[in-house]
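[Q] Does anyone have a clean structure-token version of this?
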Amino acid sequence: MKLEYLVGIVVLIFAAQFFYGLAANPGSEFGGADGAAEDVIAELDPDYEPWFGGIGFEPPGGETESLLFALQAAFGAVIIGYVIGYYKGKGESN
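[A] Here you go.
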């Protein structure tokens, strides 16, 4: 019972921060770390040339990129959940 209250409080804190951020910055867009890093690098050294250009795969649209990111997150969550469940079940059987 105590765990449910703790999880509920943590969820409420994160939700409050999220909605406060949306209210404080209306019309803002979520930006990735890649774009922010490019801006900082361009500011520090305008003549910088990347040594690697990537694998050459460009998703056809923003929706596809979001889908791939969500699939990656879901796949990681499944693996983490499996490992936690495996060791939890293994500990209870002994």
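[Q] Thanks! Anything notable?
[A] Residues 2-52+61-93 form one domain.
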